[in-house]
Structures are given as structure tokens and as C-alpha cells.
Specification:
10 helices, elongated
Length: about 270
């Protein structure tokens, strides 16, 4: 579980509710069903006009993934370098057949990009061909996987506009009834402003942070795929394990460097 995402949403909404509680003991005055539905559902209907329904539905489910730990984060890069250094030793000793045998048991079925890349190397493609094919695959995946984050970011941009629309609706109704009951003006104004409140808070504490988080994870996945691409190119060129170590470490923060003499299990 991603502790930062969970902590962020708990503390973010916690400070909002705490501020309301300090201001008033009547928490229910900040609840209005019509305003809530307009702000929460309205932006999704707008996205249906801009994107395919399947993409909007995927984004609606995808935002919950921000509470899961990202497997492609920086903590895994050192392990990736270690994997390819080990494969370089195996290839030196047993050739591509040894690489294939190890990959069959060590690569997860869900790691489609890595499996695809290893198959290219085993099939005998040249290093330039491996690089060309995998770069195309990496950027295509980046474009596909970035769609949910883009949609959530756009929903966050639309939510305050729907909040303003709800406020305008409330003001029209309030002004229309002003002559009948002037005492209801204050209550009507409060209900009208609640919709703007919902729009701003849902954008800033749900949609925009979720969209940014998904975009960051998509960037991390692209970085990992490009790291894998360069690693497999080096394997296809039959570079030495130490050369692969030093070349791949150049992509990483020094704290994430893999060192054969320190980290390699013999």
C-alpha cells in the first residue's frame, strides 16, 4: 500500500473537516445531495464527450490504484540492473539458451514488456533492431497508460466549473424566491456556495492529485522500459557483465547503483 497517498488523502480531508468543525457544530449544513451529484457525476459526462467510454471507465477505476505501491518505482531499478548483470554472466557461460531457460523461470507472466524484449534477443535480432522495436513498444505503452491520468486531470479541471454552474443555479432559484421569503436568502446563498466548495475540494483533493500520481507512475514505467531496452541491447551485443553494470548505473541515482563485488550473489 502507498502510505503517502493514504496519508495525504486522510490528512487533506481531515484538515477540511476539522476547519468546518471549528467554524460550526452543525456539520450537516455542508451537505447538499444535488450539489454533490452535480460536481461528482457532471465532469464524467463531459469526459464521455471527449474520450471513449472505455477510457473514462478505466480512469474511474484506475484512480484507486494510487493507494497501491508502485512496482516500477526507483526502489526496483537496482534489482533490474542486478538481473541483467546476472543474465550477462549466464549468456557468457551458456549462450542464449541459458538466458532463455533462466528467463522462463524468473520473469513474471505479468511483465509483458520484459518477456517481449527477452524473446527478441533470444530470436537473434541485432542490437539496433532490438532497440528500435522496444523503443517503439515503450513509447506506445506510455501513450496508452497515460490516458487515465490525463482524464483524471481533466476531470479535476472541470469540477470547479460544474461547482460554479451549481452556484449559479442556486442563485437563480434564490433570487426567484426572494420576494416570497426574504429570510431564506442567507440559507439559499449558503446552499449555492456549497456547490463551488465541492468543485474546488474534489478537484484539489481527489482528481488532480490522482491524475498527477498516475502520470508520475507512467513516467516511472517508461523509464524502467527504456532501462530494460538498453539492458537487452547490451545483452544482444554480448557486452561483459561489468560493462553492463557501469552502463546501466549511469541511468540511476548513485544510491541505487548495483555493484557486482558488493551485491552479486555468487
Amino acid at each position: 500500500m502507498s502510505k503517502s497517498s493514504l496519508l495525504g488523502i486522510i490528512l487533506g480531508w481531515g484538515i477540511v473537516f476539522a476547519t468546518i468543525r471549528i467554524a460550526t457544530s452543525d456539520m450537516l449544513m455542508f451537505w447538499d445531495t444535488g450539489s454533490f451529484l452535480l460536481v461528482i457525476i457532471g465532469p464524467y459526462f463531459s469526459m464521455l464527450m471527449a474520450y471513449k467510454a472505455s477510457d473514462v471507465h478505466k480512469a474511474n477505476k484506475k484512480w484507486l490504484s494510487i493507494f497501491r505501491t508502485n512496482e516500477d518505482g526507483p526502489a526496483s531499478y537496482k534489482d533490474e540492473v542486478g538481473r541483467f548483470v546476472r543474465w550477462a554472466y549466464i549468456t557468457q557461460k551458456s549462450g542464449l539458451q541459458g538466458l532463455e531457460n533462466d528467463a522462463l523461470t524468473s520473469v513474471s507472466e505479468s511483465d509483458h514488456f520484459l518477456k517481449y524484449g527477452v524473446e527478441l534477443v533470444i530470436s537473434g535480432y541485432t542490437s539496433n533492431e532490438v532497440r528500435e522495436i522496444l523503443k517503439e513498444a515503450a513509447y506506445s505503452a506510455y501513450q496508452r497508460d497515460g490516458k487515465p491520468g490525463e482524464i483524471l486531470t481533466n476531470i479535476g479541471a472541470y469540477a470547479p466549473a460544474f461547482g460554479m454552474a451549481g452556484t449559479l443555479i442556486g442563485l437563480v432559484v434564490m433570487l426567484a424566491n426572494m420576494g416570497a421569503d426574504p429570510a431564506a436568502i442567507g440559507t439559499g446563498m449558503a446552499v449555492a456556495l456549497i456547490t463551488t466548495f465541492y468543485g474546488v475540494m474534489s478537484a484539489r483533493l481527489i482528481y488532480l492529485p490522482a491524475g498527477m500520481k498516475l502520470a508520475a507512475r507512467t513516467d516511472e514505467a517508461l523509464f524502467r522500459n527504456l532501462l530494460i531496452t538498453e539492458s537487452l541491447v547490451l545483452l544482444a551485443e554480448r557486452k561483459s557483465p561489468r560493462y553492463i553494470q557501469d552502463k546501466l548505473n549511469a541511468f540511476l541515482d548513485p544510491s541505487q547503483h548495483f555493484l557486482i563485488d558488493r551485491d552479486m550473489q555468487r
